[in-house]
């Protein structure tokens, strides 16, 4: 009798496990450029219609280094409310500016965004740094008033289901709640927003390919 009860309890746990697994779906998004080649550093945002219990938030802090006349990383992904720390490792000054990316960069007033002057790093001293808080979602273009070749981006998201594509151009989410969801793809050189795609996450793994209308420019090495 006791054994039977234990088996019943075990079976109940198995059922619960199966139910929990069924609620989370796998969604794979592949981003390719106009010529069909995989695109790294594109941002994929999934917004489930019913987010359920949600997902752990993305890290609310990020460091963007200015090293060798580059912003590193080139694309930084943070949630709304995150704190960014800019650190100048170069021995010369950088005058960092952040402003709306995409088509907005042609219409936004110059007073939008932020500016930071970071003195060059002196031998034997700590690098200069400054912090900025990202209060709104959207893509930010980073530049430097002193060095026109410097370019970087910050993507501020309001969905915890947000990730960057790897070198294979793919992002895989294994924990999208079952049901309808919207998928947005952002890429730095795709200035015109791509249409939002709809998927129905479910028992069958969802595969979605999104093609850019551009071929992203290569990063200066
Ligand atoms: Cu600079």
Automatic annotation (TrEMBL):
Residues 1-24 form the signal peptide. It comes from Caenimonas sedimenti. The keyword Metal-binding applies. It is found in: Periplasm. GO terms for molecular function: copper ion binding; electron transfer activity. Residues 62-156 form the Blue (type 1) copper domain. Transmembrane segments: none annotated. The keyword Transcription regulation does not apply. Keywords: Copper, Metal-binding, Periplasm, Signal. This is Plastocyanin. InterPro entries: BlueCu_1, Cupredoxin. Gene3D superfamilies: Cupredoxins - blue copper proteins. It holds the Pfam family Copper-bind. GO terms for cellular component: periplasmic space. Its main location: periplasm.
